[in-house]
Amino acid sequence: MVCAAIYCNSVSKDTEEHIEKALKDLQDGVFTAVSRAASAHHGIDTSTLWRRYTKKTKPRNKAHISQMLLTPAQEEALVNWIKYLGVTGHPVSKKTIRPKARLAPNVAV
């Protein structure tokens, strides 16, 4: 999963992992229903687990994909290029990143 550094942090990734584990436990029959026990076991709010289990909501990275300026593939390419610049000792700034980001189609930077 490629995630914009601005929007994602380790807390949201950890929470998403807990939700996925809880959903897997529900599918595997470890828990018979979305209950306080299931949500407490994984440290997730019961209503959050219920909405995800009934597919009323999507994970954050999938729910807002239409609002992103870059596709995940474009974002990954840009991140790799920025890392390359940093490793090779080139300065990384908005001025050096903006021209590369503009090369991606449908991006107004």
What would you note in describing this structure?
The protein has 109 residues and is an all-alpha fold. 58% of the residues lie in helices and 0% in strands. Helix 1 (10-28) crosses helix 2 (36-42). It is elongated and about 55 Å long. The two termini are 23 Å apart. Residues 1-11 have low confidence and may be disordered.
Summary, kept brief:
The chain is mostly helical. The protein contains 6 helices and no strands.
Show the helix and strand layout.
Layout lengths: L9 H19 L7 H7 L3 H8 L6 H4 L8 H16 L6 H9 L7
Helix pairs in contact: 1-2
- Helix content estimate: 55-70%
Low-confidence stretches: 1-11
Integer average pLDDT:
80
| SSE order, one letter for each helix or strand | HHHHHH
Let me know the number of strands: 0
Q: How would you sum up the major sheet?
A: none
Q: Tell me the span between the first and last alpha carbons.
A: 23 Å
Shape: elongated
Number of discrete helical segments: 6
Residue share in β-strands: under 5%
Structural class: mainly alpha
Radius of gyration: 19 Å
For the structure shown, list the relevant keywords.
109 residues; mainly alpha
